[in-house]
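User: Here's a chain of 141 residues. Predict its fold as tokens.
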Amino acid sequence: MGHLGAGIGFALGAKLAYLDRQTVVMQGNGSFLFNVQELDTAMRYNLPFIVVIANDNAWGMIKSGQSMFSGKRYLNVDIPNIDYAAIAKGFGCYAETVVKPEEIKPTLQRAVNSGKTSVINVKIKWDTPKATKTLFNLGII
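Assistant: Prediction complete.
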């Protein structure tokens, strides 16, 4: 767990510390864009890891807050449909986009088999996480 946008940097550090271990980053699409350029570092220094993007085409945490606190009046929280797999391929990474849950496991296996830094763009539906709704309903947030 880390701050918004720190996933790829953390993956680089983890891979350097444990070269023999598989490293996987799970992050949102907005977070991915903060340090996407570090895919170049991973490729240049042959530090393969996998980035799994939960792509809901939104700044999810901000949109959840607007959903709960502003009557679902959304302002600047939607991200256009960006082809993150194409961006990753531009850096020389292995990359795929997944739209069906049953595609995730074989896609992960292909990413591992590639031996490269890989990006898996998983298209998901945006929703406020249940835990956030629960905390809100309990008056904690």
